[in-house]
Design brief:
The complex is a heterodimer of chains A (about 400) and B (about 290).
Chain A lengths: L4 H10 L8 E3 L2 H11 L6 E5 L12 E4 L2 H11 L3 E2 L2 E2 L3 E5 L3 E12 L4 E7 L6 H7 L4 E5 L8 H10 L6 H18 L1 E15 L5 E7 L3 E4 L21 H9 L2 E4 L4 E5 L2 H13 L6 E4 L6 H12 L6 E8 L4 H14 L6 E7 L2 H10 L3 E2 L3 H17 L1
Parallel strand pairs in A: 14-16, 16-17, 17-18
Antiparallel strand pairs in A: 1-6, 2-3, 2-6, 4-5, 7-8, 7-10, 8-9, 10-11, 10-12, 13-15
Helix pairs in contact in A: 2-3, 5-6, 7-9, 9-10, 10-11
Chain B lengths: L10 E4 L4 H13 L3 E5 L7 E2 L4 E4 L2 H8 L3 E4 L6 H10 L4 E4 L6 H14 L2 E3 L5 E4 L3 E4 L8 E8 L3 H12 L4 E6 L10 H9 L6 E7 L4 H12 L5 E6 L23 H10 L3 E2 L6 H7 L5
Helix pairs in contact in B: 3-4, 6-7, 7-8
C-alpha cells in the first residue's frame, strides 16, 4: 500500500527522525491559515500536492508562497488538479527550507539479496532511477544484517561514503531510523529524497546547519497490514477506485486495464498468461483478475460484477485450472452470476482440473460456450469481442 | 532419480489437522508419498489421515520418533515463519512452505537462519514439488504429471499445472516439478533449482516458467547458458501485457523503474539458449525441437 507524504512523515517522526514541521490543508482557506502560522518562522512556505503518484514537481503540484494570501491562491490552483490521473484533494504546507545540500537515502527490501538494503547518494533531489542509470558509482549501498539489523558501523560507513562525515551523528541516527521505520511498520520502502542539510536559526539565534528529512515516501507490505490496524487509517478512500475497494473487500486481486476482454482466472501467473494470450490472439485484456485458491460461488459472482462494471468489456474469458479450486463450484458461481447479470456479454468458459467433469455437465446444461485449451479459449473470446463491437 | 523429494522422502506435515493440511496430506499420501508424521501443537498423541499418521506436539518429537527428513507447512501466515524455524531447529533438511501472505520482512531472518543451519526452504507461497512416480509434496494436482526426464521450475501455481499438463498430454514426462513461490523473499531460487537439476543424472531437459518482477530469471538464465549448454531448454514468461508499477497478484510480480519486464527476461533466456514459448502449450514441441527425447 502506498501512503501519502504527510503520513509517511508521521511514521518517521514516530521513530524520532528529524522532520521539519508541516500542516495538511484540504481547502485554500486551510492552506492560508497554515501559512499564517508557518510564515512566522520562515520567509516562504512550500505547498505540495498530496497524491500517491510520483512526478508532482514536474506536474506543477509543488509551489512556493510568500504570504498567506499567496498560499491561498496557490493552494486553490493545486487542489483539484489532476496528476497522472490522481485528483489532488489535500496539500501539505511547510516552511520553505534554506537548503545547503541535498542527499538521497532509502531503506528497501532487496529481494535478490534477501535483506534490507540501504541506498545512499550525495546526489539528492533527483530521481534515484536516473542517477542509477547514468552514474551508478554515485550510489552507495550496504545490506543490514539479517539477524542484527543495521549496525552502527554500517550506518557510519554509508554516511562517510555519502560525504556526510560532517553530520555523522545525525546521519547515523537517520539511517538507523529508516530501518526502524521499516521494521516497525512492515514497509517495503522508506525513502528520503531529499535528505538535506538546511540552514536554520540555532538556539542562540545564529544560523546553524541541520540534517533533516524534507520529503518522505513509504510503501507498506499489504501482507502485513493485518498486524498494523492503525495504518489502515492511511488508506485514502478518495484515492482508491471504488472497483478496487470492492475487489479488496471480496479478496480478489483485480487490476483494471484498457481492453475489451474481461478475464477471470485462478492464480496470478495463469491470470497474467491469460492476458498475454488474449493479446496474442489479437485482443486487448480489460483486466487482471485472480480469484485466488479455493474460490466459491459467491466469489465468482463478485468477480463477474467487477468485470462487468467496466462498460468497455465486450466479452469475458473464464479460465480455471482446478487444484484447490473446484471446477463445479466455479460453474455454479457462473450460472448464478449470469442470472444476475445486468447486461448481456458473451462468455467463454474453460474449466479443467479438479471436478472438471462435473463442471462441464453444469456448463453444458446451462448452455455456456466452452473451450478445451487455453489458446482456443483466448481465440474464441477475441472473436466474440470483435463480433460484439461490430454489431 | 529426481531432486528435493523422492522415494526416500519421509514427510512431516505441519498443520496436518487443519482443513488445508488434512485435504492435501490425503492427496500426497494417495500419490504414494511417505507421510510419517503430522504436527499440530496441542494435538500430540492424536492420529491423522484416518488413523494412519501419528500427530506430535513438536517437530523435534516427530523427527525423533519417525525419522522425518522433509516438512510441508500448511500453517497460517502469522505462525508460518515460526513453523519454518521449528523445522530447521529439529534438523529437517528440506522444508516446503505452502502458506501464502507471510509479511516479507518476516522472511529476512528466517532465510538467514536456514542458510546458517544448512537446510533448504522451498517457498513460501509455493505449490510444492512432485517427482512423478515417487513422491508429491504440496498442492500440485497429481493428475497433471507424467513420469519422465524434464526438470520443471516455476514461480507460479496454476500456471505450472497448465504447462505441466500440456507437457504430459504431449507425452513429455517430468523428473521433478518444483514451484519456488511468488513472494519477494523465497528460500530457493530458480538458480538453486537449476543447479540441483544439473547434478541430477536423470534430468535431461529443463523447463523454466517465470513471470515479471525481480531479476531471478535473468540470473538463472546466465548460469544455464554457461553450465547447461548442451541440455535442451525451454521457457515461458508470464506478464508480457502487465502494466508497470502494479503488483500482479503475486507480491513479487511487479515491474518497477523499468526493471523486471517480460522482455528483459525473454531476451536473457534466449541469449542463454532457452527456446521461449508464446503459450505454455508450445513447451513440449519446443523441447523436442531443442533435441529432447522422452
Amino acid at each position: 500500500m502506498k501512503i501519502q507524504e504527510a503520513d509517511a512523515k508521521r511514521l518517521l517522526l514516530a521513530q524520532g527522525l528529524p522532520v521539519p514541521e508541516w500542516e495538511v490543508a484540504r481547502t485554500p482557506a486551510e492552506a492560508r491559515a497554515a501559512a499564517e502560522r508557518l510564515l512566522t518562522r520562515a520567509d516562504k512556505v512550500v505547498i505540495k500536492a498530496q497524491v500517491l503518484v510520483g512526478g508532482r514537481g514536474k506536474a506543477g503540484g509543488v509551489k512556493l508562497a510568500g504570504s498567506p494570501a499567496e498560499a491561498e491562491t496557490t493552494a486553490a490552483t493545486i487542489l483539484g488538479m489532476s496528476i497522472k490521473g490522481s485528483v489532488v484533494r489535500k496539500v501539505l504546507v511547510a516552511p520553505a527550507a534554506d537548503i545547503v545540500r541535498e542527499y538521497y537515502l532509502s531503506a528497501v527490501l532487496d529481494r535478490a539479496g534477501r535483506r534490507i538494503l540501504l541506498m545512499g547518494s550525495a546526489e539528492g533531489g533527483v530521481e534515484i532511477e536516473q542517477v542509477a542509470a547514468e552514474r551508478p558509482d554515485a550510489i552507495v549501498t550496504i545490506h543490514a544484517d539479517p539477524l542484527l539489523g543495521l549496525e552502527d558501523w554500517q550506518a557510519r560507513t554509508i554516511a562517510f561514503r555519502m560525504g556526510l562525515g560532517g553530520q555523522l551523528k545525525a546521519a547515523v541516527a537517520i539511517a538507523k531510523g529508516l530501518v526502524r521505520t521499516m521494521l516497525a511498520n512492515d514497509a517495503d520502502l522508506v525513502e528520503i529524497n531529499p535528505l538535506a542539510i538546511v540552514r536554520e536559526a540555532g538556539a542562540d539565534g545564529q544560523p546553524a546547519e541541520r540534517l533533516v528529512c524534507l520529503d518522505a515516501k513509504v510503501t507498506l507490505d499489504d501482507s502485513a497490514l493485518y498486524r498494523h490496524p492503525e495504518l489502515e487509517a492511511f488508506r485514502d478512500p478518495d484515492e482508491e477506485d471504488p472497483v478496487d475497494a470492492e475487489a479488496r473487500a471480496a479478496g480478489i486481486n483485480f487490476i483494471h486495464l484498457d481492453g475489451t476482454i474481461g478475464c477471470m482466472v485462478n492464480g496470478a501467473g495463469l491470470a497474467m498468461t491469460t492476458m498475454d494470450l488474449v493479446k496474442r490472439a489479437g485482443g486487448e485484456p480489460a483486466n487482471f483478475l485472480d480469484i485466488g485458491g479455493g474460490a466459491k460461488a459467491d466469489k465468482v459472482a463478485a468477480a463477474m460484477r467487477l468485470i462487468l462494471a467496466d462498460p468497455k468489456v465486450e466479452a469475458i474469458l473464464v479460465n480455471i485450472f482446478g487444484g484447490i479450486t473446484r471446477g463445479d463450484e466455479v460453474a455454479h458461481g457462473l450460472i448464478e452470476a449470469r442470472g444476475q447479470q445486468v447486461r448481456e456479454v458473451p462468455m467463454i468458459v474453460r474449466i479443467v482440473g479438479t471436478n472438471a467433469t462435473e463442471a462441464a455437465e453444469l456448463l453444458r446444461a446451462a448452455r455456456f460456450e466452452t473451450a478445451a485449451s487455453l489458446d482456443e479459449a483466448a481465440e474464441k473470446a477475441v472473436a466474440a469481442a470483435k463480433a460484439a463491437s461490430a454489431a | 532419480m529426481s531432486i528435493l523429494i523422492g522415494t526416500d522422502t519421509r514427510l512431516v506435515v505441519q498443520g496436518i489437522t487443519g482443513r488445508e493440511g488434512d485435504f492435501h496430506a490425503r492427496a500426497m499420501q494417495a500419490y504414494g508419498t511417505k507421510i510419517v508424521a503430522g504436527m499440530t501443537p496441542g494435538k500430540g498423541g492424536q492420529r491423522a489421515l484416518d488413523g494412519s499418521v501419528p500427530v506430535f506436539d513438536t517437530v523435534a518429537e516427530a523427527v525423533a520418533e519417525t525419522g522425518a527428513n522433509t516438512s510441508c507447512i500448511f500453517v497460517p501466515a502469522p505462525g508460518a515463519p515460526d513453523a519454518i524455524l521449528e523445522a530447521t531447529a529439529a534438523g529437517i533438511g528440506t522444508i516446503f512452505c505452502i502458506t501464502e501472505g507471510i509479511p516479507a520482512l518476516d522472511m529476512v531472518p528466517v532465510v538467514e537462519a536456514i542458510r546458517l543451519a544448512g537446510a533448504r526452504l522451498i517457498g513460501p507461497n509455493c505449490p510444492g514439488a512432485t517427482s512423478p512416480g515417487s513422491a508429491k509434496v504440496g498442492i500440485i494436482p497429481a493428475s497433471v504429471h507424467r513420469e519422465g526426464s524434464v526438470g520443471v521450475v516455476s514461480r507460479s501455481g496454476t500456471l505450472t499445472y497448465e504447462a505441466v499438463q500440456a507437457m504430459s498430454d504431449a507425452g513429455v514426462g517430468q523428473s521433478t516439478c518444483v514451484g519456488i513461490g511468488g513472494d519477494p523473499i523465497i528460500g530457493t531460487t530458480f538458480l538453486d533449482v537449476l543447479q540441483l537439476f544439473a547434478a541430477d543424472p536423470e534430468t535431461r531437459a529443463i523447463v523454466l516458467i517465470g513471470e515479471i518482477g525481480g531479476a531471478a530469471e535473468e540470473e538463472a538464465a546466465a548460469w544455464a547458458g554457461e553450465h547447461l549448454r548442451d541440455v535442451p531448454k525451454a521457457a515461458f514468461i508470464a506478464g508480457r501485457t502487465a502494466p508497470e508499477g502494479r503488483r500482479m497478484g503475486h507480491a513479487g510480480a511487479i515491474i518497477s523503474g523499468g526493471r523486471g519486464t517480460a522482455a528483459s527476461k525473454v531476451e536473457a533466456l534466449e541469449a542463454a539458449g532457452f527456446r521461449v514459448a508464446g503459450s505454455p502449450t508450445e513447451l513440449p514441441a519446443l523441447l523436442r525441437a531443442a533435441g529432447h527425447r522422452d
